[in-house]
Write a structure and sequence with these properties.
It is built from 22 helices and 2 strands. It is mainly α. α3 packs antiparallel against α5. Pfam families: Proton_antipo_M (PF00361).
């Protein structure tokens, strides 16, 4: 019998699946000449999928016998995912048409289709109510991501990034699957509710091992220390629009998945997983702050920045409270805007021949030749560093406040101290832009769309406090769905 209620809750994934299959057929017959049209149609599909989130946000409930959960938490995360994915589709054609990183034309119609299928997987990840749904969504996202990482086949760095991502991703998937099998073996269930009920009686040794393996597999997906090793190489080697995608949408999906698993499946064993999350948060903050200091490539620096930001977001999860979850969701929303804006600025880094430049030293003197771009760089770097009154400060304040309210004052104090250390490499970029001797000038902007997206992102970072009531309300509603 057709379960209409379940289909309505899962409508965003159904829309994206249908759109992906239709666009795949168009690409097969029309070829790469249809790439731009397919990209715009993909953005429209993401918009329709975002509209289809309304039933989950307003009503919510379980679907397909508890395998899938349509609620405000999943809707909030999917909204961020679809927004980031749409931007990454829009900014790709110019990068690939200009030759990417090696002067070879690389625009392909499959790019937006892969992103749509990745979004289907990410949607399943944040709405999973069962470990099997979790794994299917995770692999669907990962398979598309492996191809995207190596999308520029002519570029050796891109091929290397795809291979590293695939090998280490397969290892992480194996670790996660082993953890799921242990939890099933010792709890007798793969559903989040069943696992939580079994853990409420106390953790056995087998359940403890399963919990550790599952969290280890998820830590890889959010690129948290000590499972971060793939991040700098993949971010540097992948095409810049793909790197922007990896740093935003999959990060939100993986963090959302981790939060849901921790609070719903393992909520009754919070005292056990909190220790793990605290360690991972501390290690990610410390490593991300220190390892980025010596970087000379802007994309590698932003990779370590993402590791650092994951650590801060995990502070909210470590609190284990509804306020902590709300802080994580607010942090992710602000992080997406900062990250997308930063990579849009990186896309503007092109030499006089139009070839991409990634060396931080090439930013020297940018304030004299491209004042608007220099100001945007300063806004995003100051915000990532957590300098008030920009929104990056508010994101960190929320997770620190949640940690203090939960009695984790030491964790919050460590995070605040490391924010000062991490600010060094962000300020280094601003110093290069405004105070170093000018380097060779960049090519003109060349894209009104990129300039407009940079301006909108920068405005949101500066004026975002005007939207704080709305963001707080939505984050609180998302957190309440898990409690």
């Amino acid at each position: 019998m057709l379960d209409t209620a379940s289909l309505i809750l899962a409508l965003p994934e159904l829309v994206l699946t249908a759109a992906g299959l239709i666009l795949l057929m168009i690409a097969a017959y029309a070829g790469d000449t249809s790439a731009k049209m397919i990209g715009w149609l993909g953005v429209v599909a993401l918009g329709v999928a975002a509209w289809a989130l309304c039933p989950a946000w307003t009503q919510g409930g379980d679907a397909f016998g508890g395998l899938y959960r349509g609620d405000a938490f999943g809707a909030f995360a999917k909204g961020l995912i679809y927004l980031a994915a749409a931007v990454c589709i829009l900014i790709a054609p110019r990068f690939f048409e200009a030759g990417g990183a090696n002067g070879a034309r690389a625009i392909r119609a499959e790019y937006p289709i892969l992103i749509l299928f990745a979004c289907v997987g990410m949607g399943m990840m944040v709405s999973a109510g069962d470990m099997l749904t979790l794994y299917v969504g995770l692999e669907l996202n990962s398979l598309a991501a492996y191809v995207l990482a190596s999308f520029m086949r002519q570029d050796g760095r891109s091929a290397e990034a795809g291979l590293k991502y695939f090998v280490l991703g397969a290892l992480a998937s194996g670790i996660l699957l082993y953890g799921i099998s242990l939890l099933y073996g010792f709890t007798g269930s793969t559903s989040y509710a069943g696992i939580a009920a079994a853990m409420a009686d106390g953790l056995s040794h087998g359940e403890t091992f399963g919990l550790v393996f599952v969290l280890a597999g998820l830590a890889f997906k959010i690129s948290a220390v000590p499972f971060h090793m793939w991040t700098p190489d993949v971010y540097e080697g992948a095409p810049t629009p793909v790197t922007a995608f990896f740093a935003s949408a999959p990060k939100v999906a993986a963090m959302g998945l981790t939060v849901r698993v921790a609070m719903e499946a393992m909520g009754s064993a919070a005292s056990s997983w909190q220790q793990i999350v605290v360690f991972v948060a501390l290690a990610s903050i410390l490593f991300g702050a220190v390892a980025a200091i010596g970087q000379t490539n802007i994309k590698r620096l932003l990779a370590y920045s993402s590791i650092n930001n994951v650590g801060f977001a995990l502070i909210g999860l470590a609190a284990g409270t509804a306020e902590g979850v709300a802080a994580v969701m607010s942090y992710l929303a602000i992080y997406v805007v900062m990250t997308i804006g930063s990579f849009l600025c990186v896309l503007q880094m092109r030499d006089s021949q139009g070839n991409p430049v990634e060396d931080i030293a090439s930013l020297a003197g940018l304030s004299q030749s491209r004042k608007g771009l220099a100001a945007a760089f300063a806004i995003f770097m100051f915000s990532l560093a957590g300098i008030p009154p920009l929104m990056g400060f508010w994101a960190k304040f929320l997770v620190f406040d949640a940690a203090v309210a939960a009695g984790m004052t030491g964790l919050a104090a460590f995070g605040i101290a490391m924010s000062v250390v991490g600010a060094f490499y962000y300020l280094k970029i601003i110093k290069t832009v405004y105070f170093d001797e000018p380097a060779a000038e960049y090519a003109p902007a060349g894209s009104r769309m990129e300039s407009a997206l940079i301006a909108v992102s920068a405005a949101l970072i500066v004026l975002g406090y005007l939207f704080n009531p709305l963001l707080d309300t939505m984050s609180a509603a998302a957190a309440a769905a898990l409690h």
